[in-house]
């Protein structure tokens, strides 16, 4: 059995893995796991990833969780072009630095922004206190400034002159608040120019394909009672 990728393109790290595999011509079978339906909690999926999260990879009898681990596994197994995860010690360290930072910084603020600004009121029918949303947006703005000042600087891409997996992880995160109507690039010309370079490097068609689901999330029908109950622990976490 060939490579299988368990993904839901509503998820930002799933989009990064999807774009990377498609862009590099890596053959895989897409196994869609619908997060909003709770399919990641199924016993069948737990056999692939006991952590019950996406993305997940299955390559023959080998299984792997966590998006960064999956991306790096794919770079090594399929010997993708060096710029994705450079052999140069310091260039690779810059990629690693961003991947280590983003988990508890940009990802958190982008996820909370999308949920608080869009999914709570539209999908769950739940009011978000204005002060909570204001605090979340302020934290997002702080993270965006760090993204520019610490990581992008005056470079074309986050780790230097060429696109890397760090850029894919970053841009897929930023499309979360964009899908909720936040024009995060409006007053950030440096970041806007970087986004254009990333889209051009990936290819517009693939970029749009990967983000079609999240860009339509605002049109989701309201959640039923069972789904609201299932999402309650996540909702409580994202309102903290």
TrEMBL record:
Gene Ontology CC, one term: cytoplasm
Domain GST C-terminal residues, every copy: 88-222
Biological processes, Gene Ontology terms: glutathione metabolic process
Coiled-coil stretches noted in the UniProt entry, renumbered to this chain: none
Keywords: Cytoplasm, Transferase
Broad class of enzyme this protein falls into: transferase
Presence of keyword Cytoplasm: yes
Catalysis: reaction(s): RX + glutathione = an S-substituted glutathione + a halide anion + H(+)
Listed GO MF terms: glutathione transferase activity
EC number: 2.5.1.18
PANTHER family the UniProt entry points to: GLUTATHIONE S-TRANSFERASE THETA-3, PTHR43917
Stated family: Belongs to the GST superfamily. Theta family.
Name of the protein in question: glutathione transferase
Species of provenance: Delphinapterus leucas
Lineage of origin: Eukaryota, Metazoa, Chordata, Craniata, Vertebrata
């Amino acid at each position: 059995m060939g490579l299988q990728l368990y993904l839901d393109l509503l998820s930002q790290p799933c989009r990064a893995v999807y774009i990377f595999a498609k862009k590099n011509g890596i053959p895989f079978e897409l196994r869609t796991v619908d997060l909003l339906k709770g399919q990641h909690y199924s016993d069948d999926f737990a056999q692939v990833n006991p952590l019950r999260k996406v993305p997940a990879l299955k390559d023959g009898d080998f299984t792997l969780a966590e998006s960064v681990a999956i991306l790096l596994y794919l770079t090594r197994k399929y010997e993708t072009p060096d710029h994705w995860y450079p052999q140069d010690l310091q260039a690779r360290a810059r990629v690693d630095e961003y991947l280590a930072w983003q988990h508890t910084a940009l990802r958190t603020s982008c996820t909370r922004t999308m949920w608080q600004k869009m999914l709570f009121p539209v999908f769950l029918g739940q009011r978000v206190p204005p002060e909570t949303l204001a605090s979340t947006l302020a934290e997002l703005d702080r993270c965006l400034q760090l993204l520019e000042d610490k990581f992008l600087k005056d470079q074309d891409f986050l780790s230097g002159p060429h696109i890397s997996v760090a850029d894919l992880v970053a841009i897929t995160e930023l499309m979360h608040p964009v899908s909720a109507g936040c024009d995060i690039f409006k007053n950030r010309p440096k970041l806007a120019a970087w986004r254009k370079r990333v889209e051009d490097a990936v290819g517009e068609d693939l970029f749009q394909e990967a983000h079609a689901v999240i860009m339509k999330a605002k049109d989701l029908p309201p959640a039923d009672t069972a789904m609201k109950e299932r999402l309650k622990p996540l909702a409580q976490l994202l309102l903290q």
